[in-house]
């Protein structure tokens, strides 16, 4: 039996290893457009390699049908992943947050051990090999690069991801291949990414970072609330809270919905209590500028923008600010609303949403329901995980099941 795997990311690598371990006599060819394997593995966790998460459920995923992940996450749960890692000599560091890293704290050690395992099993790895086309004739597949054709494959696994991180040669060719075999797919969108807002004061607040509560509104309805870091940027907002909320925000932007966020700078304070505190501060120093007093509460980059929004002059003294204006200040700090107009795009995204529709793929074997011998795994499917190692865990799990299926005689 002869198998081709397109994409040497987490899903493709574990599929190749699993298949060869189950049947050492089959030929497995692994193709990747990069000069090395696992480029997105290397980039995960800011280079520290957030390789998985020790507590994963289908609720950690988005897509047309997140429950598609249930069987894979059960069959290849964290214990199974940990066992796999030990089998290649990789020890793990499990954090209290459930995020999982290599004990070495270096992503390179992960890809190096995977490389050694592939080599020891006799998997043929073709690097710098961007696949341009796939064909099937007389029950056999052939795949083409720009200058070479590889033929006589019994089965093909498409695991080359989607468009997030094009600087790592990420592309959406997997969708083109899927379409060729009559698969449909849902529109793709950047996920875990910074968000653009429609205000004009971006540059004035750039660099400010604060732990806040962020609420997401879709067509005026509250959809999600997240607490975490918010970073103001020259284009809008980023930070961990924004990356987390961006998944639902970006998905709805792709559907042309009205998307807004509201940032609460003081989530532990009720709006009325915040108003009382501001009023008390102003009474303590009535002759001081309101602007200067506010910088004791919030960033000196935010304070002038805050006064501008509340229609208060920067040189206004504290004693000149009336009760209605103080309520306006506290309201703004409690619910700083921003309209989301766009994302930072695939070039800055950690993952891609959308992809091959999961109802056209078997959730136990990951074989296509449209074309016998064709398989899909990982990000190319319409499944995207939350931040924190969930995307890689689905890649490992789906790749593992695909690898098991690839060696079965059909």
How are the SSEs placed, and which strands pair?
Elements: E1 2-6, H1 10-22, E2 27-31, H2 39-43, E3 52-53, E4 61-62, H3 70-75, H4 78-87, E5 92-94, E6 99-102, H5 107-121, E7 124-126, E8 133-137, E9 140-144, E10 149-153, E11 155-158, H6 173-180, E12 185-191, E13 195-197, H7 202-205, E14 209-218, E15 221-232, E16 236-238, H8 240-254, E17 259-264, H9 271-284, H10 290-294, H11 302-309, H12 323-334, E18 336-343, E19 351-356, E20 374-376, E21 384-385, H13 390-406
Helix pairs in contact: 1-5, 1-13, 9-12
Keywords: FAD, Flavoprotein
InterPro entries: BaiN-like, BaiN-like_dom_sf, FAD/NAD-bd_sf, RsdA/BaiN/AoA(So)-like_dom, RsdA/BaiN/AoA(So)_Rossmann
Pfam family, one: HI0933_like
Question: How would you describe what is shown here?
Answer:
- The chain is α+β, with helices and mostly antiparallel strands and 410 residues long.
- Helix content is 32%, strand content 25%.
- It has helices at residues 10-22, 39-43, 70-75, 78-87, 107-121, 173-180, 202-205, 240-254, 271-284, 290-294, 302-309, 323-334, 390-406; strands at 2-6, 27-31, 52-53, 61-62, 92-94, 99-102, 124-126, 133-137, 140-144, 149-153, 155-158, 185-191, 195-197, 209-218, 221-232, 236-238, 259-264, 336-343, 351-356, 374-376, 384-385.
- A six-stranded antiparallel β-barrel has the order 13-16-15-14-17-18. It has a five-stranded parallel beta sheet with strand order 7-2-1-11-20, sandwiched between helices. A three-stranded antiparallel beta sheet has the order 3-6-5.
- Helix 1 (10-22) runs parallel beside helix 5, helix 1 (10-22) packs parallel to helix 13 and helix 9 (271-284) packs across helix 12 (323-334).
- The termini are close together.
- This is Aminoacetone oxidase family FAD-binding enzyme.
């Amino acid at each position: 039996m002869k198998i081709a795997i397109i994409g040497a990311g987490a899903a493709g690598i574990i599929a190749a290893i699993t298949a060869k371990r189950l049947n050492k006599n089959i030929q497995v060819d692994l193709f990747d457009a990069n000069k090395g394997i696992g480029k997105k593995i290397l980039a995960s966790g800011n280079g520290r390699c957030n390789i998985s998460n020790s507590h994963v459920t289908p609720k950690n995923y988005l897509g047309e049908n997140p429950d598609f992940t249930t069987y894979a996450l059960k069959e290849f749960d964290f214990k199974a992943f940990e066992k796999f890692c030990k089998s290649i000599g990789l020890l793990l560091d499990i954090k209290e947050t459930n995020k999982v890293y290599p004990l070495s704290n270096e992503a390179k050690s992960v890809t190096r051990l995977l490389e050694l395992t592939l080599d020891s099993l006799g998997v043929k790895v073709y690097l710098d090999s961007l696949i341009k086309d796939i064909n099937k004739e007389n029950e056999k597949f052939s795949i083409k690069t720009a200058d070479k054709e590889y033929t006589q494959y019994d089965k093909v696994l498409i695991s080359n991801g989607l468009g997030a991180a094009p600087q790592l040669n990420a592309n959406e060719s997997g969708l083109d291949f899927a379409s060729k075999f009559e698969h449909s797919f849902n529109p793709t969108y950047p996920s875990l990414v910074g968000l653009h807002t429609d205000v004009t004061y971006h540059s004035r607040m750039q660099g400010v970072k604060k732990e806040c509560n962020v609420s997401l509104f879709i067509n005026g309805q509250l959809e999600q609330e997240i607490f975490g870091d918010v970073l103001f940027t020259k284009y809008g907002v980023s930070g961990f809270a924004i990356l987390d909320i961006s998944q639902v925000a970006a998905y709805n932007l792709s559907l042309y919905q009205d998307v807004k966020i509201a940032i609460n700078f003081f989530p532990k304070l009720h709006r009325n209590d915040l108003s009382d505190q501001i009023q008390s501060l102003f009474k303590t120093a009535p002759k001081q500028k309101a602007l200067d007093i506010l910088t004791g509460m919030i960033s000196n980059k935010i304070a002038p923008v805050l006064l501008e929004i509340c229609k208060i002059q920067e040189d206004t003294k504290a004693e000149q600010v009336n009760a209605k204006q103080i309520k306006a200040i506290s309201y703004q700090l409690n619910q700083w609303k921003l309209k989301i107009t766009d994302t930072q795009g695939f070039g800055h995204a950690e993952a891609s949403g959308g992809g091959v529709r999961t109802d056209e793929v078997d959730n136990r074997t990951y074989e296509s329901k449209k074309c016998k011998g064709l398989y899909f795994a990982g990000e190319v499917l319409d499944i995207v995980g939350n931040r924190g190692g969930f995307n890689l865990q689905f890649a490992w799990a789906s790749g593992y099941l695909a690898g098991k299926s690839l060696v079965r005689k059909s």
